[in-house]
Amino acid sequence: MSLLRILPDWHISDKCITPEASYQKRRAFIRKLGLGTAGISMGAGPLSMLGAEANAKDTKVSSLGYPFERNKDFNPSWKLTQQTVAESYNNFYEFTTNKSRVRYMVGGFNVSPWDVQIGGLVENPVTLPLEDCYKRFQMEERVYRFRCVEAWSMVVPWTGFPLAALLKWVQPKPEARFVKFTTFNRPNEAPGMRLGSYPWPYVEGLTIEEAEHPLTFVATGIYGKPLPKQNGAPVRLVVPWKYGYKSIKSIDRIEFTAQQPKTFWESLSPVEYPFESNVNPNVPHPRWSQATERVVDTGLRRRTELYNGYGAQVGRLY
Ligand code: MTE
Predict the structure, then answer these.
(1) In angstroms, what is the span from residue 6 Cα to ligand 1's centroid?
(2) Cα(177) to centroid(ligand 1), Å
(3) Residues lining ligand 1, judged by CB closer than 6 Å?
(4) 189: nearest Cα among 105, 63, 127, 315
(5) Rg (CA), the chain
(6) Domains and CATH numbers, the chain
(7) What number does the ligand 1 atom closest to the CA of 243 have?
(8) What's the pLDDT tens digit per position in 153-175?
(9) pTM as predicted
(10) Half-sphere exposure (CA, 13 Å, Cβ side) for 88?
């Protein structure tokens, strides 16, 4: 992966970070105004949301139920990465390899309507219209660490539901040993896919035990609102103890298989990006160390934790 080479050399001052308390206060304030959260996502104050289009968007967001309650079992007090940073520093190769340009390249990406095909070795194959997730699953917010293989990290509040709930619904057959996830394949909407130098579509995979693990999360939102396109709208995976590339964006298909699927990055470089890819400070990437990580919004370095700090929960799997 050429990811590290294109890291822009920037960071913002600590002073710019929104402390958790004021983020929550602002959220409550906006809720009180009855304005939902779309104003935050657009980087505008609530007053600029009074146009008809903004109101329509807002009605849609609040009809989905955002913001959902934060689950207190998942690190509610961690200091969040500044929202504007999490939404403007992205890896989404279908659009561009330039992190700070992704959000400008997603305009032609059509995320509604969106159906996820779920099949393979399951008792109940289904086509899941995205909006049905909100009715079928108990939605919640969780705060997770997110660690990219490029040695940067964030702390993000995701909205969604555990993948285990989906597994329970579709009922994998006993022969199903792996779960394969595939991103949309529409080069006409995603300029990076027209370059032809990558094995599109983007594919990721987990073992069935990893997929069933209570930490494995299907995210439809961040920061109390639906996912922006650059962060993987309308639905993505979040596997917090693995490198970020395992957290596949904009999922189109979920398939249960007997064979281990070949993933996108693995097919490009199996030594650098193996299937398992758990965060591990003691196993350097062949081209750089994983011992420390750069916190994206402060620029400070911290020591990388085994399994990204989730060892107590997932250590038993390995
Ligand atoms: N999913 C798809 N479909 N395409 C991608 O390029 N990049 C991965 C992952 N999921 C990627 C993807 C990588 S390398 C990272 S670090 C995270 O998405 C970045 O997620 P973020 O932009 O929301 O921080």
Answers:
(1) 15
(2) 24
(3) 90-94, 148, 183, 202, 231-232, 244-245, 247-250
(4) 105
(5) 19
(6) 14-33+65-317 (3.90.420.10)
(7) 16
(8) 999 999 999 999 999 999 999 99
(9) 0.85
(10) 13
